[in-house]
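Researcher: Batch entry, complex prediction.
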Amino acid sequence: MKKFITIVKAFWQRALTYRLTVLAYRIGEIGETLVLILMWSAIYDGQKVIGGLTLQEMITYILIGNFFNAIIRNFLSSVVARDIKDGRLSMFLVKPMSYFNYILSQEIGRISLATMMSVLSSALVIVFFIDTFIWSFDIAYFLVIIAMVILAFITELLLSYLIGLIAFWTDEVDGIYATIDRIKKFFSGGYFPINILPLMFVQISFALPFSYSFFVPAQLYLKKLDLSVGLKGLLIQIVWIAILYGIIKVVWNRGLKRYEGVGI
Amino acid sequence: MADIEVKNLSRTYEYYRKQQGLLGSLKSLFYREKLFAEAVKNISFSIESGELIGFLGPNGAGKTTTLKMLSGILHPTGGQVKVLGHIPTEREKKYQKQFALVMGHKNQLIQDLPAIETFIVNKEIYEISDKEFEENLNELVELFGIKDILDIQVRKLSLGQRMKCELVAALLHKPKVLFLDEPTIGLDVVAQKNIRDFIKKYNREKKTTIILTSHYMEDIKELCERVIIINLGKIIYDGKLDDLIKKYATHKLLKVVFNGNGVQQEEVERFGEIDEFNPYICTIKTKRNEAKNTAIALLSSNLPVDDIIIDEIDVDDVIRQIFNS
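Model: Structure tokens for the complex:
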């Protein structure tokens, strides 16, 4: 645990060194949220309800969803891929700590400042739309949402790590990452609420882990989904975490063999 | 028991040939010519505790590959390695806490933070106690004289300063075995000397077993009593550096200084092969066992000899000769 905290602290400091970069990213994020709100306001022109949401609900959906998303995402895959490509992984392999534990601690340290700033800037946008934003608080929903966001954070971390590991075979993962990122955003409901599409899409997205980082917690917040759907979601997330962890183990072992050149 | 035991170690790499140009790239999508390179071929050696060994060889000789196998990064394709009684590729924590690897062109320091932060991270990773950490750090910092750069971002440091910090980071856990892969690469002469002096002192005081690879003969000459020369994946010499010269340097150099009007080249040619000539200083190459007699003959001749120095052929030349042959 002390190892973890020390590494997190070190990379916290690194983030503080690059505070301007951290800040600059936030401007883009706020911009994106505003564009989405603008777009939906134009689409709603005259219409009362789309996808079961009023304009006010839709704006709340975008704001709260982006708020969750700010907590959940990470940028681990490029870090892992670079370590593998440049051979820096060697420096970790000789140390008495697993790369998985090290790099996860590092990423949590690296992004925690950015995450806090994101949360802050998302909160600021919410304040800006204070008149439109729907406030809703229910302790049961609240707890489920918190659990869901934490699990979504872990899922994302594992997924990014897994994508990074592909570098054992391809050296570069930017293309794969970009594609998966878009698929993820689509199924998560980050572009638009997934339920405006045919039911099949909703069913697929509920089976995948992505909707639990945006659509489901946002809909739960709006109480458009039943609490039971939330609880079932938590279960699906746990299953996904187990699956991802298993795949990571296999991919890591095979990739490492390639890196070490076993069986050549 | 020896610290490092290497028996019949081999390592083959797989690689591909790609034909030139875009068409070649397209072809390689469907068919690639698979080739094998034997980086290390059936080498054996053993190193006793406290030894400082120089690992010599041209680029691509297999030095780094061997070090990687000793540190457990690479799996051998054949043979066995044992370091401190452990098989490196098993990556036991117990073994990892007892050795360190420093590579001249790879870094472990966190580039965007001062070196001290990496030291603190390493302290936790290697589970070094507060007291031990403080003692080791102070000692190393003192030895290198780097107290005033510990709080400067690593990327702002000079290459020499960075290398010193890399070494500190690698030595905090007091490794028993240390692999140094070209630690002086790219450094200026002063920084090279600093690192060299440090390695020498550290080996003497801590009795750490060290394998050093370097392209700079100065490093080897000054630090290593024993050298292992490797070329094309094979060991071609393993023994004392002094013996190497005796074995391979069949000649000695006589440096003769003349006074007065100097001499003509024809006048000295009968004493041996002329290596360098000007009327006042002349270097004559003679067989080892004839060096003394040649010197006497020179002194008793009527040439205006002022001074004679009998010298070994430079070790650089010896090694160049070995690699070329």
